[in-house]
Amino acid sequence: MKNVVGMIEAAMLIPGWTPADELLALYALALGTSSLPGDVVEIGSWCGRSSVVLAEATQHSHAVLYCVDLWPERQDWYQNTDGSWSFKAVGQQGYGQQTVWNEPFVRDIEPVYRRGFLIAQFHANVAPYSHVGVLRGTSSAVYTQSVRLAFLDGDHGYDAVMNDVHALSWRIVKGGWLCFDDAHSGYEGVDRAIAKLAEDSTFGHGVQLTRKLWAVQKR
Known about the structure:
Elements (H helix, E strand, L loop, with lengths): L1 H10 L8 H13 L6 E5 L5 H10 L6 E5 L7 E3 L5 E3 L14 H12 L4 H9 L5 E5 L10 E6 L5 H11 L3 E10 L6 H10 L9 E2 L4 E5 L2
Helix pairs in contact: 2-3, 6-7
């Protein structure tokens, strides 16, 4: 347990918003599904805080951890008329249904870019793990046909979340898990997508694992 605590503490030093309890829950889910076939997919990786935890949990299995993100650079961000910020990466779709208000942008996002290129920071953080596959784009870039655990933490707009669900839910193996970050914590798009997923009879009843992590298992 001491090594796990140290791993979580080290991950918390990486810029990001995933709290320690959620990292521990993701670690447990990744370990708990190690006997299942399939890979692990993370949509929305930023600098790799949750990525390194999932990588730790999967490094001794045969799974590939696919990390998917747009990894926008500072010049990709633009300020809206209401003072909030959005981005559109060159050649990629931006977060059209989700914005960041100026205060958290200045406090949490701008300082990250002063450290260097975003995707370079991510690569440096996951460098110890040879089983990490990096996909720059959205969930449509995922090509693995079998998934045992999927963690959705990308665009939180309803249409975007549903696109992620449609791209991944059919790939999840029996007994595998589909997880949503920022569930029931003020993001209407995420909550609506979770409610819609309840209509899919191939999944069981979901559970709120932490304050903002919700997960559902494939029947």
